[in-house]
Design brief:
The protein has 284 residues and is α+β, with helices and mostly antiparallel strands. It has seven helices and 14 strands. Helix 1 crosses helix 6. The protein is flat.
């Protein structure tokens, strides 16, 4: 595999319709919002979905969710201790981890546990080349909450009767258009071995971000990647700063639209940058 040679910036436009894109456990699992009322999806949530997509593609993943574990290890520590051996120093340890797991060479990882007798309990940090911002909605979102009742008899009472019904709540965003921003750093890619082929896999993951991601909070089809904008610079450091790249895509509500119902209710304008044009990919 050839190591990445050109800096990459990207933006993903994501729609949410009657779905909870990312619940906040400290707020009754309501959709995350900023202090100004804009919707938010954490970078950790986005990386989890990318890892899941990479795993679906047959890649080896270090940070696996419990329900998707495919190697039988019950913890990150157990996975590291059993899969990495025979190293002489931290650099060899990091290089082995990057070669073995695509998410380590993509996002980085802190191996903060003793790997074997040589580890002495010291942590081994790996900085990954792919960074992702928290996704923020284009406009403030409306959150709709409904009460739900579980009337199934979970446990029989002492007198053989039906247990009491259980009340709960379900929260969803009526409609929101979220913007995910990210970049791929060549200097860090050279250190982890992140390749051109790896970058193409990340692009495919972004395009298919919500495939196999349905749940009660996100019914199939309620979350959709609208478009992926992929800027590949002609050098390692980039022709423009990531800030200027990300600001070149302007998304705002159309005049007269107060309550958007689809991406068609937004004006999407791409400001041209001399010598650099993005690849625009429709989501699946």
């Amino acid at each position: 595999m050839s190591t990445l040679q050109n800096k990459i910036d990207f933006i993903v436009l994501v729609t949410a319709e009657n779905a909870n894109p990312n619940g906040d456990p400290l707020n009754g699992n309501r959709p995350r919002i900023t202090s100004e009322g804009y919707g938010m999806i954490s970078d950790v949530c986005i990386k989890r979905k990318i890892r899941n997509r990479l795993q679906d593609m047959g890649e080896n993943i270090f940070v696996q969710s419990n329900e998707r574990c495919d190697d039988g290890y019950k913890s990150l520590s157990e996975r590291a201790k059993n899969e990495i051996s025979g190293y002489n120093n931290e650099d060899e340890y990091a290089a082995t981890a990057c070669q073995k797991w695509i998410d380590v060479r993509t996002f980085g990882q802190v191996f903060a546990f003793k790997a074997n007798d040589k580890g002495k309990g010291d942590s081994v940090p790996v900085r990954g080349p792919v960074t992702i911002h928290q996704a923020i909605s284009v406009n403030p979102i409306d959150v709709n909450s409904i009460q739900i009742t579980k009337s199934v008899n979970s446990e029989t009472t002492k007198n053989g009767g039906k247990s009491s019904d259980t009340m709960g709540s379900k929260h969803m965003v009526n409609f929101g258009l979220y913007k995910i921003k990210g970049s791929i750093n060549v200097q860090l890619a050279e250190k982890t071995g992140f390749s051109e082929e790896d970058a193409e896999k990340i692009k495919e993951c972004l395009k298919t971000l919500f495939v196999n991601d349905c749940s009660a909070a996100r019914p199939d089809g309620s979350m959709q990647v609208a478009q992926v904008y992929w800027w590949k610079h002609n050098n390692k450091c980039g022709q423009y700063s990531s800030k200027k790249i990300h600001d070149s895509l302007d998304v705002k509500l159309k005049n007269g639209v107060n309550y958007p119902h689809s991406i068609d209710d937004f004006d999407v304008t791409l400001k041209p940058l001399d010598g650099l044009a993005p690849e625009i990919i429709d989501g699946i």
